[in-house]
Amino acid sequence: MRFAIEDHPRWDEEKKRLLLETHSYIFPVEEMKLGDPLPQIWGRLVDDNDSVRGFMYITSREEDEGGDGGEAEDEISLVIDPSVQSNGFGRILLEKAEEHLRSKGNLLATVRVQPSNPRAFELIDWFYRKDYICYWPGVSNNEPKSVEFAKNIVGRQQDVTLKKNLSQ
Ligand SMILES: CC(C)(COP(=O)(O)OP(=O)(O)OC[C@H]1O[C@@H](n2cnc3c(N)ncnc32)[C@H](O)[C@@H]1OP(=O)(O)O)[C@@H](O)C(=O)NCCC(=O)NCCS
Predict the structure, then answer these.
(1) What is the pLDDT of residues 103-154, one digit of tens each?
(2) Number of folded domains in the chain?
(3) What band does 67 get if pLDDT is binned at 50, 70 and 90?
(4) Residue 153: HSE in the Cβ half-sphere, 13 Å Cα cutoff
(5) What CATH number is given to the structural domain containing 40?
(6) Which is it for the CA torsion 100, 103, 104, 108, positive or negative?
(7) CA distance 94 to 98
Protein backbone atom coordinates (compact mmCIF):
# COMPACT_ATOMS: atom_id res chain seq x y z
CA MET A 1 0.00 0.00 0.00
CA ARG A 2 1.38 3.43 -0.84
CA PHE A 3 0.16 6.99 -0.47
CA ALA A 4 1.09 9.98 -2.60
CA ILE A 5 0.04 13.60 -2.80
CA GLU A 6 -0.67 14.43 -6.46
CA ASP A 7 1.55 17.09 -8.05
CA HIS A 8 -1.01 18.48 -10.50
CA PRO A 9 -4.36 16.99 -9.55
CA ARG A 10 -6.74 16.37 -12.40
CA TRP A 11 -10.11 14.75 -12.83
CA ASP A 12 -9.43 11.15 -13.87
CA GLU A 13 -11.15 7.77 -14.26
CA GLU A 14 -10.33 6.65 -10.71
CA LYS A 15 -11.76 9.78 -9.12
CA LYS A 16 -14.84 9.50 -11.29
CA ARG A 17 -15.33 5.88 -10.25
CA LEU A 18 -14.89 6.43 -6.52
CA LEU A 19 -16.65 9.79 -6.18
CA LEU A 20 -19.64 9.03 -8.40
CA GLU A 21 -21.93 7.70 -5.70
CA THR A 22 -21.10 9.76 -2.66
CA HIS A 23 -19.55 13.06 -3.79
CA SER A 24 -21.48 13.99 -6.92
CA TYR A 25 -23.04 16.94 -5.04
CA ILE A 26 -19.54 18.48 -5.02
CA PHE A 27 -18.18 17.10 -8.29
CA PRO A 28 -20.86 17.10 -11.01
CA VAL A 29 -19.45 13.91 -12.46
CA GLU A 30 -21.42 14.05 -15.72
CA GLU A 31 -20.24 17.61 -16.48
CA MET A 32 -16.59 17.16 -15.61
CA LYS A 33 -14.09 16.28 -18.31
CA LEU A 34 -11.23 13.87 -17.82
CA GLY A 35 -8.06 15.94 -17.44
CA ASP A 36 -9.79 18.98 -15.89
CA PRO A 37 -7.44 20.54 -13.29
CA LEU A 38 -8.71 20.46 -9.69
CA PRO A 39 -8.19 23.23 -7.11
CA GLN A 40 -8.02 20.96 -4.04
CA ILE A 41 -5.00 19.12 -2.64
CA TRP A 42 -5.40 15.44 -3.58
CA GLY A 43 -3.76 12.31 -2.21
CA ARG A 44 -4.34 8.74 -3.35
CA LEU A 45 -3.90 5.39 -1.64
CA VAL A 46 -2.80 2.68 -4.06
CA ASP A 47 -2.47 -1.05 -3.34
CA ASP A 48 0.33 -3.39 -4.43
CA ASN A 49 -1.55 -4.17 -7.68
CA ASP A 50 -1.69 -0.45 -8.56
CA SER A 51 -5.43 -0.25 -7.85
CA VAL A 52 -6.60 3.00 -6.28
CA ARG A 53 -8.27 2.16 -2.95
CA GLY A 54 -9.16 5.66 -1.83
CA PHE A 55 -8.64 9.40 -2.05
CA MET A 56 -8.41 12.22 0.37
CA TYR A 57 -8.85 15.78 -0.80
CA ILE A 58 -8.39 18.99 1.12
CA THR A 59 -10.47 22.06 0.36
CA SER A 60 -9.23 25.41 1.56
CA ARG A 61 -11.95 27.36 3.38
CA GLU A 62 -10.30 30.60 2.24
CA GLU A 63 -10.67 29.40 -1.30
CA ASP A 64 -14.35 28.46 -1.27
CA GLU A 65 -15.83 30.74 1.39
CA GLY A 66 -13.99 34.00 0.98
CA GLY A 67 -12.02 33.59 4.23
CA ASP A 68 -11.30 36.32 6.75
CA GLY A 69 -7.56 36.52 6.35
CA GLY A 70 -7.12 34.46 9.54
CA GLU A 71 -5.53 31.08 9.95
CA ALA A 72 -6.24 28.73 7.06
CA GLU A 73 -8.85 26.15 7.99
CA ASP A 74 -8.66 23.33 5.57
CA GLU A 75 -11.36 20.71 5.28
CA ILE A 76 -10.54 17.05 4.72
CA SER A 77 -12.79 14.79 2.64
CA LEU A 78 -12.33 11.06 2.25
CA VAL A 79 -13.57 8.41 -0.11
CA ILE A 80 -12.72 4.72 -0.02
CA ASP A 81 -13.54 2.15 -2.70
CA PRO A 82 -16.82 0.59 -1.42
CA SER A 83 -15.46 -2.93 -2.00
CA VAL A 84 -12.71 -2.40 0.59
CA GLN A 85 -14.40 -0.19 3.19
CA SER A 86 -13.96 -1.10 6.89
CA ASN A 87 -10.43 -2.38 6.36
CA GLY A 88 -8.66 0.57 7.94
CA PHE A 89 -7.95 2.54 4.72
CA GLY A 90 -10.10 5.50 5.83
CA ARG A 91 -8.09 5.78 9.02
CA ILE A 92 -4.81 5.71 7.04
CA LEU A 93 -6.01 8.45 4.67
CA LEU A 94 -7.29 10.63 7.51
CA GLU A 95 -3.90 10.37 9.24
CA LYS A 96 -2.08 11.18 5.97
CA ALA A 97 -4.33 14.21 5.42
CA GLU A 98 -3.69 15.47 8.98
CA GLU A 99 0.04 14.89 8.49
CA HIS A 100 -0.05 16.97 5.32
CA LEU A 101 -1.89 19.83 7.06
CA ARG A 102 0.62 19.74 9.94
CA SER A 103 3.49 19.90 7.46
CA LYS A 104 2.07 23.09 5.99
CA GLY A 105 1.78 24.64 9.45
CA ASN A 106 -1.94 24.27 10.17
CA LEU A 107 -3.13 23.82 13.75
CA LEU A 108 -6.63 22.61 12.90
CA ALA A 109 -8.19 20.07 10.58
CA THR A 110 -11.90 20.22 9.86
CA VAL A 111 -14.33 17.65 8.43
CA ARG A 112 -18.03 17.75 7.72
CA VAL A 113 -20.72 15.09 7.51
CA GLN A 114 -23.59 15.80 5.13
CA PRO A 115 -27.08 14.96 6.43
CA SER A 116 -27.74 13.24 3.09
CA ASN A 117 -24.93 10.76 3.74
CA PRO A 118 -26.70 7.42 4.24
CA ARG A 119 -24.06 6.50 6.84
CA ALA A 120 -24.11 9.89 8.59
CA PHE A 121 -24.64 8.55 12.15
CA GLU A 122 -21.93 5.93 11.77
CA LEU A 123 -19.58 8.51 10.30
CA ILE A 124 -20.20 11.00 13.14
CA ASP A 125 -19.22 8.29 15.66
CA TRP A 126 -16.18 7.47 13.56
CA PHE A 127 -14.93 11.08 13.62
CA TYR A 128 -15.51 11.27 17.40
CA ARG A 129 -13.36 8.15 17.75
CA LYS A 130 -10.67 9.96 15.74
CA ASP A 131 -10.68 12.81 18.32
CA TYR A 132 -12.71 15.28 16.26
CA ILE A 133 -14.91 17.68 18.22
CA CYS A 134 -18.24 18.86 16.86
CA TYR A 135 -18.40 22.67 16.76
CA TRP A 136 -21.48 23.02 14.56
CA PRO A 137 -24.25 20.52 15.29
CA GLY A 138 -25.86 20.64 11.88
CA VAL A 139 -29.36 21.96 12.56
CA SER A 140 -30.57 25.38 11.55
CA ASN A 141 -34.24 26.46 11.67
CA ASN A 142 -35.11 22.81 12.25
CA GLU A 143 -33.48 21.92 8.93
CA PRO A 144 -30.66 19.34 8.95
CA LYS A 145 -27.38 20.83 7.75
CA SER A 146 -23.91 19.38 7.57
CA VAL A 147 -22.35 18.55 10.94
CA GLU A 148 -18.93 20.17 11.24
CA PHE A 149 -16.00 18.88 13.26
CA ALA A 150 -12.54 20.17 14.04
CA LYS A 151 -9.45 18.62 15.55
CA ASN A 152 -6.40 20.32 16.91
CA ILE A 153 -3.71 18.42 15.03
CA VAL A 154 -0.83 19.74 17.11
CA GLY A 155 -2.14 18.37 20.38
CA ARG A 156 -3.93 21.06 22.37
CA GLN A 157 -7.42 19.72 21.80
CA GLN A 158 -9.15 21.91 24.40
CA ASP A 159 -8.51 24.95 22.19
CA VAL A 160 -10.72 23.82 19.34
CA THR A 161 -14.22 24.74 20.51
CA LEU A 162 -13.21 28.13 21.83
CA LYS A 163 -11.24 28.96 18.71
CA LYS A 164 -14.05 27.94 16.40
CA ASN A 165 -16.65 29.88 18.41
CA LEU A 166 -14.51 33.00 18.37
CA SER A 167 -14.17 32.84 14.61
CA GLN A 168 -17.91 32.46 13.88
C1 LIG B 1 -16.20 7.04 5.65
C2 LIG B 1 -15.07 6.29 5.00
C3 LIG B 1 -14.05 7.29 4.44
C4 LIG B 1 -14.36 5.43 6.08
O5 LIG B 1 -13.33 4.67 5.48
P6 LIG B 1 -13.12 3.12 5.84
O7 LIG B 1 -11.89 2.67 5.14
O8 LIG B 1 -14.38 2.37 5.56
O9 LIG B 1 -12.90 3.25 7.42
P10 LIG B 1 -11.94 2.41 8.37
O11 LIG B 1 -11.90 0.98 7.89
O12 LIG B 1 -10.65 3.10 8.55
O13 LIG B 1 -12.74 2.50 9.74
C14 LIG B 1 -14.08 2.03 9.86
C15 LIG B 1 -14.18 0.97 10.91
O16 LIG B 1 -13.87 -0.26 10.31
C17 LIG B 1 -13.33 -1.15 11.31
N18 LIG B 1 -11.98 -1.56 10.89
C19 LIG B 1 -10.89 -0.82 10.69
N20 LIG B 1 -9.84 -1.57 10.31
C21 LIG B 1 -10.30 -2.83 10.28
C22 LIG B 1 -9.71 -4.05 9.96
N23 LIG B 1 -8.41 -4.14 9.59
N24 LIG B 1 -10.49 -5.16 9.99
C25 LIG B 1 -11.78 -5.07 10.37
N26 LIG B 1 -12.41 -3.91 10.68
C27 LIG B 1 -11.67 -2.83 10.65
C28 LIG B 1 -13.25 -0.36 12.58
O29 LIG B 1 -14.39 -0.56 13.36
C30 LIG B 1 -13.20 1.03 12.05
O31 LIG B 1 -13.53 2.00 12.99
P32 LIG B 1 -12.34 2.52 13.98
O33 LIG B 1 -11.21 3.00 13.10
O34 LIG B 1 -12.91 3.67 14.75
O35 LIG B 1 -11.95 1.36 14.83
C36 LIG B 1 -15.56 5.35 3.88
O37 LIG B 1 -16.50 4.43 4.41
C38 LIG B 1 -16.19 6.05 2.68
O39 LIG B 1 -15.48 6.35 1.73
N40 LIG B 1 -17.50 6.32 2.71
C41 LIG B 1 -18.20 6.93 1.60
C42 LIG B 1 -17.80 8.37 1.38
C43 LIG B 1 -18.03 9.19 2.62
O44 LIG B 1 -19.07 9.10 3.25
N45 LIG B 1 -17.02 9.99 2.94
C46 LIG B 1 -17.04 10.84 4.11
C47 LIG B 1 -17.06 12.27 3.71
S48 LIG B 1 -15.83 13.13 4.66
Answers:
(1) 998 889 999 998 888 888 999 999 999 999 998 877 777 777 889 999 989 8
(2) 1
(3) very low
(4) 24
(5) 3.40.630.30
(6) positive
(7) 6
User: 100, 99, 127: which is closest to 113 by C-alpha?
Assistant: 127
Question: How many Å apart are CA 52 and CA 1, to the nearest integer?
Answer: 10
The response to whether residue 87 sits with its C-beta less than 6 Å from ligand 1 reads: yes
3-state helix, strand, coil in the chain (%, to 5): 30, 30, 45
CA of 1 to the centre of ligand 1 (A): 16
> Atom 24 in ligand 1: which residue has the minimum CA distance?
87
| Alpha carbon distance 104, 100 (integer Å) | 7
126 lines ligand 1 (CB under 6 A): yes
User: Ligand 1 test: best mutation among 25, 83, 91, 94, most atoms within 8 Å of CB?
Assistant: 91
Q: Using CA atoms, how far apart are residues 22 and 13, in angstroms rounded to an integer?
A: 15
Collapse the DSSP code of 142 into the 3-class scheme (helix H, G, I; strand E, B; otherwise coil) and give the result.
coil
Q: Is 45 in the pocket of ligand 1 (CB under 6 A)?
A: no
- Give the predicted TM-score (pTM) of the model: 0.88
Question: What is the extent of the structural domain holding 150?
Answer: 2-166
